[in-house]
Amino acid sequence: MSLPPAIHKQIKNKLIMSTKPKTPPTGANGASAPAEPPTYRINPEVEAKIDSHIKENPKYWNYVQTMPRERLERTVVLNEVRELDRQQRIRDGVLKQINQNPELKRAYDLLVKNVPEDEKEGVIAQIGRTARRAVARVQGQQQTRGEAVGV
């Protein structure tokens, strides 16, 4: 499924820090290339944000630097688990909202009628999240305009 151009542009413009190493190329027989240390992408804007945060929070930075490696690794994993839990709660909320409104449910079912059965729920959740963000953005813009006009 292709994203609408407006959504694609928003995703492209977000600051994303990649924590995944670039995958090494595979040979003709499918074997991995010789083991080399992974290379990580560097986003200068993200690096600047990190540097700024470190400068503003030297005590926290010292705390992080003194953490034992295992504790630091477990903290990173905990943050990933929290993020996955947050995403699942959002997904469940979107699906619950859609399923509570029969007319809305029919509309989403119509949108995904050609999607494979095992992917329908995920696609409905994705469309619902996108729609929810778009509505929130429009409402936020309307409030901002209303405040500016009412001043």
Model description:
This protein is mainly α. It has a domain at 44-146. The protein is built from six helices and no strands. Helix 4 (69-100) crosses helix 6.
Keywords:
151 residues, 69% helix, single chain, mainly alpha
Element layout with pairings:
Elements: H1 5-13, H2 44-56, H3 58-66, H4 69-100, H5 102-111, H6 120-150
Helix pairs in contact: 4-6
Quick overview of this protein structure:
The chain is an all-alpha fold. It is built from six helices and no strands. The chain has a domain at 44-146.
Series of H and E elements: HHHHHH
Model regions low in confidence, pLDDT < 50 over at least 5 residues: 6-18
Using DSSP, what is the number of strands?
A: 0
Compute the average pLDDT: 82
Principal-axes geometry comes out as: extended
Determine the strand fraction and express it as a percent band.
Answer: under 5%
